[in-house]
Amino acid sequence: MRLLSAVGSASDLFRLCLALPLALALADLVSGLVHWAADRLLPSDWPVLGPAFVQPFRDHHRDPLGITRHDFVDTNGNNCLVSWPLALWAFAAAGEVRFAERELFAPALLLQTTLALALTNQIHQWAHAPAVPRWVRGLQRAGLLLSRRHHMCHHAPPQDRHFCITTGWLDRCLDRLLARPRAAGQGQTSMV
User: Fold this and answer.
1) How confident is the prediction for the chain on average, in pLDDT?
2) Cα separation of 66 and 125, whole Å?
3) How far is Cα 115 from Cα 146, in angstroms, rounded to an integer?
4) Are 66 and 60 in contact (CB under 8 A)?
5) Spatial CA neighbour of 31 closest among 99, 100, 122, 149
6) Nearest alpha-carbon partner for 123 in 190, 168, 88, 185
7) SS3 for 157?
């Protein structure tokens, strides 16, 4: 509300709107790096984070539909707990700035990125769900949320591609950056 009340011109509104796709891209990047680290890098027996964070990512590959059996709190609780310090910071920043044109963009970007990160697992759940609300399907078709078709590339063997679980926009970039060299004769996962 603080950000919206600070909009005093069309250029202010433009800055708020410009922050949204950048926030989605940042959330997609963070989701991809975290997913990759949980799948490939971090030890599952790591104290505290192993059983609470790493193991659920790996279990998800054994039961991809398991995420659809979780309620809203189970699906989004961990992301919300991690995101709330960022949300508090964004809230404080929105209250302290005078909202000159150059000051409106940063708090808007931070707040929208925080919200996107908080809802990333919900978006991921929708990509697995056999049926989603019409408005979610519309956002998936528009490419604004991760779609089932796009995300299924990650679940195809050898499950080493498409780690981003917010929009999927940065999958191709991260796939190139994080790809492990393949042995001769190994097939590539199709890129959608």
Assistant:
1) 85
2) 9
3) 16
4) yes
5) 122
6) 168
7) coil
